[in-house]
Recover the amino acids of this structure.
């Protein structure tokens, strides 16, 4: 269930979410404290009022969502230096796959964005890479076999 | 007096200009019924599906597969599915292959057998350009709609595009699952597109437990557990 899910976040990811939360709270305050358009005719029909409500409800929904994320967030901590030779959450990994090179950043589901190379630790490839070291070949099958050769692992902020 | 509504005794009616703008909007989005999905055109699929056809099934899949997901606002999810590709009326459809497409047919067929990889800078640039182009297109499409509709459409699209809500995050994946299913159906019928890059991408992309289960089902149903080129 989404509400009870733990959100693994990078330091930057959590900071970004907290910043957005604070800005939206400030925006909500400014909207509710003095910028409500004067309501004329019916509250249900005035399009100006409707659009204001749309905005406010969007802001409120996002604030609730961010509160839930912050409440259930767990900061991704880099492993100790001795353990940084293995892939874990927060690792940046250089792989060779299908004759090409790509760089993956292993993140939690919320920060995942495969178009930017941010691969979820809950995706089949993310799961398969976890715990592996440089030089190892990770095979992901079903239905086709793909080999990910691990070239480099590093832990650094986004 | 509101520019969009007026009172007639106990009834509320839309005024003429309001209806006229809605009509224009419906005619514009109707163009999606005739716009083929670019990915299939590149792959030379005969009679490829239109963007509207993709929207139709992605909405059904999101609703029905989303049934199992608790805490999901179905109305929001369905509306999101309906609006998610409206921007393509003006922005057109984009694919990850667009920037690397060769003119030569043989080279194209060879390219379609791989998943295009880019460096970090290129990935960021592509994503930003796509976002800007689509946002501008959506603003243009909805510019004459009444403010509440314009905002609702924009907010639903933003939720999807940026994954701002549980519905947005789920639909990002349900939308791609529809695309994936269509690829498998074409492959079964025409033996194209090549499926290796699709599976490669899918296993890096999907992480929703429910959709991963669905992906397992696709493997069984389309490949019967065995991989055939």
């Amino acid at each position: 269930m989404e509400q009870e899910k733990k959100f693994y976040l990078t330091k930057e990811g959590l900071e970004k979410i907290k910043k957005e939360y604070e800005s939206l709270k400030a925006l909500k305050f400014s909207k509710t404290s003095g910028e409500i358009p004067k309501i004329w005719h019916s509250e249900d029909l005035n399009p100006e009022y409707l659009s204001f409500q749309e905005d406010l409800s969007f802001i409120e929904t996002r604030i609730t969502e961010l509160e839930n994320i912050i409440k259930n967030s767990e900061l991704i901590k880099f492993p100790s230096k001795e353990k940084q030779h293995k892939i874990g959450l927060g690792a940046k990994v250089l792989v060779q796959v299908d004759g090409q090179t790509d760089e993956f950043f292993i993140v939690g589901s919320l920060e995942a964005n495969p178009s930017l190379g941010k691969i979820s630790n809950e995706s089949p490839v993310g799961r398969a890479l976890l715990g592996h070291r440089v030089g190892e070949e990770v095979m992901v099958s079903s239905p086709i076999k793909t080999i990910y050769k691990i070239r480099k692992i590093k832990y650094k902020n986004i | 007096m509101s520019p969009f509504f007026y009172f007639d005794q106990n009834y509320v009616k839309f005024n003429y200009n309001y209806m006229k703008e809605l009509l224009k909007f419906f005619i514009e989005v109707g163009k999606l019924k005739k716009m083929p999905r670019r990915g299939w055109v590149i792959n030379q699929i005969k009679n490829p599906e239109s963007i509207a056809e993709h929207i139709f099934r992605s909405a059904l899949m999101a609703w029905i597969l989303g049934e199992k997901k608790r805490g999901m606002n179905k109305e929001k999810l369905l509306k999101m599915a309906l609006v998610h590709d409206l921007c393509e009326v003006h922005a057109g459809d984009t694919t990850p292959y667009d920037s690397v497409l060769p003119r030569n047919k043989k080279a194209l067929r060879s390219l379609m057998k791989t998943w295009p990889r880019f460096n970090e800078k290129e990935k960021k640039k592509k994503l930003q350009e796509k976002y800007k182009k689509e946002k501008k297109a959506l603003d243009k499409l909805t510019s004459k709609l009444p403010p509440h509709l314009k905002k609702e459409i924009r907010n639903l699209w933003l939720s999807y595009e940026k994954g701002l809500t549980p519905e947005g995050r789920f639909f990002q994946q349900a939308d791609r699952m529809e695309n994936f299913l269509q690829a498998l159906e074409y492959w079964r019928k025409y033996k194209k597109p090549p499926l290796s890059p699709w599976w490669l991408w899918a296993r890096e992309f999907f992480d929703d437990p429910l959709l991963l289960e669905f992906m397992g089902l696709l493997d069984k149903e389309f490949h019967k557990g065995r991989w055939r080129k």
